[in-house]
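hiii, so i know i said id send this last week but things got crazy w the move. better late than never?? heres the sequnce for the chain we talked about at the cafe, plus the structure i predicted for it. fair warning i was half asleep when i ran it
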Amino acid sequence: MPIATVDPATGETLETFEPLPPAEIERRLAAADTARARYRTSGFAERALLLNRAADLLEEDAPDIARTMTTEMGKPVKAAEAEAAKCVKTMRWYARHAEELLADERPAQADVADSGAARAAVHYRPLGVVLAVMPWNFPLWQVVRFAAPALMAGNVALLKHASNVPRTALYLQDLFGRAGYPEGCFQTLLIGSDAVESVLRDRRVAAATLTGSEPAGRSVASVAGDEIKKTVLELGGSDPYIVLSSADVERAAKTAVTARVQNNGQSCIAAKRFIVHADVYDAFRDRFVAGMRELTVGDPMNEDTDVGPLSSERGRADLEELVEDALNRGATALCGGQRPKEQERGWYYSPTVLTDVTPQMRIHREETFGPVATLYRVEDLDEALELANDTPFGLSSNVWTRDDAEIARCVRDLQAGGVFFNGMTASHPGLPFGGVKRSGYGRELSGHGIREFCNATTVWYGSAG
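okay and structure toks below
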């Protein structure tokens, strides 16, 4: 895939970039290694000052970088502006909390004495150079939610961004440079996927994090495993959205529309499979379908647009194949199911709700990356949980209920990295984020995320005499 900015609203190639030659990749690896040696000894106050400067600059740049993101991958510009604001919030959160999150831990005195020590502690120390392989769907947020904690922990970063968001990738390098970070602390590598393995195998790279597809995750995990290097993977999701009989159906249906089409439906944590109790199924279905039909599909630079184009022609084709397979096997499209007729250019797809979905259809098992929802009727909670867990993924989940027993059951039995009740799944700097099964491993955000790329060092002190 060429490294290029291609406007998905028109299909026009706006700019192409040459991949970095081997000599320049080597120069940047050397710069990262040099920065690592110095930056790891910096204090939290210095790191916080730098990260707050970056946050201030990003806040000023938000309107411009939002338009860049929209141009490169098609999200509505109002959503791009919200993404930039979320990044600013997260940077400031880590600047404020990192020191306490990485404070030395003191084991219980009884355990210290039992070990024969006079005293003991656990110190969190940075691993060093971390390679981040990041996706296009949240081109700013996915990077910042890694970079903010990693830099506050004393690590340095190399970014291999998706090949269709090069302008955003270069902006990020410029942002941290303008904030005053030492040279080599954050660098963008404009390279193709074929160059990732050699970078990851380089002795100066200590660890890697990847957000992306399952095949990409397998590839990075395989190389890192061969090199015995730490990885964090956040892969796909096919999140269930369960509506039980006691739910506030009107709120559940309204939220369901946003939960499915956020980011043009191209989000790993977007609700994708809507599993509704028979007692409220008809009411939910009617409200949900009406809400999907009312969405405005169009130019993502227009503030009134709800759903813009998909990021690529290939992405739309993949989505169309899933929908056509389902329709050919007996599914029913309650709305959508095709390209919008009014959009002659660009990679648009109509908001779609499919029902009568069966396990024989690809869409039942595969992730839909676009504004397409599958709708299921169930008779009870047991059936809802069985269907919700009938997926290779386990990123997050949504449940709508007012019943405490049902809440407890869902917390216990849903196979997911998160369970969100009576609201939409979202990430927050103070809460850990990640999945199970083929959705990956490890956690981002919160204290869990900042410690992923730290060496938890046990320090034991014997008696001095």
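btw The domain at 239-428 is CATH 3.40.309.10 (Aldehyde Dehydrogenase; Chain A, domain 2). thought thatd interest u
miss u guys!!
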